[in-house]
Design brief:
Distance between the termini: 20 Å
Strand content: under 5%
Number of strands: 0
Radius of gyration: 9 Å
Helix content: over 70%
Structural class: mainly alpha
Largest sheet: none
Number of domains: 1
Number of helices: 3
């Protein structure tokens, strides 16, 4: 699990970093999938 996701405890931080990672790290499928799961968990 990426250290960035591990640090994210607040919903706002997760959402903001999720958008950042979607645009900046689109090529990393594992991180993208982890972010999608994280967003689904807080939804």
């Amino acid at each position: 699990m990426p250290p960035t996701l591990h640090r994210l405890l607040k919903k706002q931080d997760i959402i903001i970093l999720a958008y950042d990672n979607i645009f900046v790290k689109q090529k990393r499928k594992t991180e993208f999938a982890a972010l999608k799961i994280a967003l689904r968990v807080i939804a």
